Amino acid sequence: MRCFPTISDLFEYLFHIHIAIPIQTFGFFVAMAFILAYQAFRSELKRKEREGDIHAFKREVVVNQSSLLIELCLNGLLGFLLGFKILGALLNYEAFKVDPAKYIFSLQGSIIAGLLCALAYIYWIYKDRKKVSSQNNTVTAETVHPYQLMGKIVFYAGFWGFIGAKLFDMIDYLYQHGFTSLHDLVFSSGVTYYGGFLFGMLAYFYVGLRNNMKLPFIADMGAPGIMLAYAIGRIGCQLSGDGDWGIVNTHIKPNWLRWLPDWMWAFNFPHNIINQDTRIPDCYGSYCYQLSRGVYPTSFYETVICMLLFIFLWMIRKRLTVPATMSYIYLILSGTERYFIENIRINPRYHLGSISLSQAQIISIGMVLVGIGGIVYLYLIKPKRYTLT
Fold first, then answer.
1. N or C terminus of the chain with fewer C-beta within 10 Å?
2. What's the half-sphere exposure (Cβ side, CA atoms, 13 Å) at 58?
3. Among 241, 232, 312, which residue's Cα sits nearest to residue 270?
4. Handedness of CA 377, 379, 382, 385 (dihedral sign)
5. End-to-end alpha-carbon separation of the chain, Å?
């Protein structure tokens, strides 16, 4: 077993055929995480609308030739920027990984991807608006179903998720290195999952609340999709060897796990994408490094665990009749999983007296406490209150 910095490497390993595919493995699985989570969110929005928990709404749209042209131009520009930067980052993940913030604020990107996304956005808006009369100052009322808000949700959650991921990484950077310079703080290369998760979810809640959805239903609908996205994203971490691995595994594999491949117990991530540690003998090319000692492949563990948790959440979602139950269960499961996996991951530690915890563990404890408190409130405190009244 080895790492696969690009999809070409993975394809060649599986099928023994080399096809030049200029897509980074990590970027590919991040894109897959977004796509599959999008489908899960969309499916839940449709189901909740059928069950009457959320509703379609009417909005007035004033259309004339000038406003249509402006709308097409603005959406074309938005599509270009998204394609230029986001798809450009996926196509050139190595440069993005080295310094994400510098890449985002530079002129680097994919012009072809930007133009394709711009055309797609323009066509999408034109197709939607061509149903409306071409006469000037036409006022029309259109029905908007909740699942049609997914485009806005993805944009808001993606934008604010990146901001949050960067801010939380800056907190870690300050704790480890102190304030060295504004440039080092802003342009450090890391991002933090929980920062992206918290800010992305707040943006998702904002869009839902602005469109008259109730918070418990918004939270419940998002839980399975978030778990799925995390599981898929971790596949990219594992296959590319992006540094999200565990501590050195000094333990000998027990006899009852003899059937387990050695790399699942301790893995040295040969050909990792960040060129970490020791050069591989007789290897030539861009990715010729491996770890000198085997570490816990924590990304693999999280993929398996979180995929099972997603299946569990998906199976029980229709059986939960009390709003907010799903979201509280998600908080407990996700927080518990991350807390324990952090014990064998390499992450900065915050020292609280004699207790040493990572940022993710501190947040995980909060998630579990909120989840347990929410379940207690829904099933023990709230029913009694209603009984008394």
1. C
2. 4
3. 241
4. negative
5. 63
What is the tens place of the pLDDT at every residue in 291-325?
999 999 999 999 999 999 999 999 999 999 899 99
b/e burial code for range 25-48 (CB count within 10 A of at least 16 → b): bbbbbbbebbebbbebbbbbbeeb
Torsion angles phi and psi, residue 301, rounded to 5: -60, -45
The pTM of the full predicted model, rounded to 2 decimals, is 0.77
C-alpha to C-alpha distance for 244 and 75, rounded to whole angstroms:
36
Amino acid identity at 379 = Y
3-state DSSP assignment of residue 239 = helix
> What would the two tokens of residue 223 be?
């839980």
Q: Is 358 helix (H, G, I), strand (E, B) or coil?
A: strand
User: Using CA atoms, how far apart are residues 256 and 279, in angstroms rounded to an integer?
Assistant: 33
pLDDT of residue 261: 92
Question: Judging by DSSP bridges, how do beta strands 278-279 and 289-290 pair with one another?
Answer: antiparallel
Residue 301's CB: how many other CB atoms inside 10 A? 19
Which letter does DSSP use for residue 246 in this model? B
* Vertex 201: Cα angle to 199 and 205 (nearest 5): 120
Least trusted range by pLDDT, from 25-39, 135-149, 224-238, 247-261: 135-149
The CA angle 193-199-203, to the nearest 5 degrees, is 135
List the one residue out of 138, 121, 153 whose CA is nearest residue 37: 153
Which residue type does 269 have?
A: F
Q: Which pLDDT tens digit goes with each residue over 272-281?
A: 988 888 999 9
**CA 356 – CA 253 distance, rounded (Å):** 27
Phi/psi at 191 (nearest 5 deg)?
-140, 155
Among 149, 124, 141, CA closest to 62: 141
Helices (H), ranges, 51-181: 65-82, 88-91, 93-98, 100-104, 111-129, 150-177
CB 7 within 8 Å of CB 25: yes
Count CB atoms within 10 A of the CB of residue 378: 16
Residue 362 has pLDDT above 70, yes or no: yes
- Helix (H), strand (E) counts: the chain: 16, 6
